[in-house]
Amino acid sequence: MMKSSILIHNEGAGDGKIDAEALIKVLAAAGVPTRHCSPKDPQLADCLAGAEDLVILAGGDGTVARILSQLPDRADRRIAIVPLGTANNIAQSLGILSSIEPGAGEEILSGWKHAETRFIDIGLAKGPWGEQRFVEGVGIGPLARTIIQFKSEGVSAVDSMRLGREALSRNVAYATSLASPLRIDGAPTAEDLLMAEIMNIQHAGSRVRLAPDADSGDGLFDVVTLATAARDDFRAWLAKGSDKDLPPVTIRRARAVDIEWQGELLRIDDYSPKTMDRSGRVSIGFATQRLAVLVPLAQDASTFERTATCL
């Protein structure tokens, strides 16, 4: 049983359907005293350095990834995720959220007393900008361009997912071959590529399941590459919108990847690194940090879905 917790809650996620006060009320009923800290708090680092043994992250992928990558390394601490975003790729990949509908997340509130523990590695990208930790992945090519440039304010979650996939399809249609060579665990790639994604989780972008067998805690990346010759096959697969069919990509497992960056738009999680020097070696590996995440069992998710509807 957790002794105390800290809640990091993004008030803008999930259209404000669940606020921090409601979450704290449910946690209190479960006997877990909780303090709240906003992800925008200028004293966030001090909040995360507190003594609490449970960190609850309520928000979308951007908030969850950013906070996970900043957490101090502590073996005695557990993470719980309340997915309130649109794609919820991290929660999907960890098994916290089933793929029912975009934005569904209020069913996971605090039913963690019977939870399984799964692990997530924290990646580390080094380049001309310095160093940056990440959770989801690093990529260049049309998916990176879509993630960085696509905006969907003012539309429903379902429409956002559809429009995001359509934007990715268009970017794939007009993409040129990558100019940046890759080395995967020291071995160069010889293929003519449109896209390269170094993934730590199964999903990316608008819940596109590019790496179906990725294990976020196995110390290996799933390096997903799309050959130029497979452009049309990939667009056809994307149009189906089904996780049942495997994507027409090549997947290699690796501990480290080097990119000889030639200026293409590059994403680290949901952001493009800020640097004037857009060329040079980008080295991608793992930080020493490995985080323990609680994944509620089905009975707990069901129980707290009912609780959520009463708030």
Number of DSSP strand runs? 17
| Tally of separate domains | 2
Radius of gyration: 19 Å
Q: Round the mean pLDDT to the nearest integer and report it.
A: 86
Distance between the termini: 24 Å
**CATH secondary-structure class of the largest domain:** Mainly Beta
Query: What count of helical segments does DSSP give?
Result: 8
Q: Enter the CATH topology name of the largest domain.
A: Tumour Suppressor Smad4
Looking at this protein, list some descriptive labels.
single chain, 311 residues, alpha+beta, Rossmann fold, Tumour Suppressor Smad4, 2 domains, 10-stranded mixed beta sheet, 5-stranded antiparallel beta sheet, 17 strands, globular
Describe the overall structure.
- The protein is 25% helix and 30% strand.
- By secondary structure, the protein is α+β, with helices and mostly antiparallel strands.
- Strands 1, 2, 3, 4, 5, 6, 8, 9, 15 and 17 form a ten-stranded mixed β-sheet that branches. Strands 14-13-10-7-16 form a five-stranded antiparallel β-sheet, with helices on one face. Strands 11-12 form a two-stranded antiparallel sheet.
- The longest helix is centred in the middle third of the chain and has 18 residues.
- It has two domains: 125 residues, Rossmann fold (3-Layer(aba) Sandwich), CATH 3.40.50.10330; 164 residues, Tumour Suppressor Smad4 (Sandwich).
- Helix 5 crosses helix 6 and helix 6 packs antiparallel against helix 7.
- The C terminus is likely disordered.
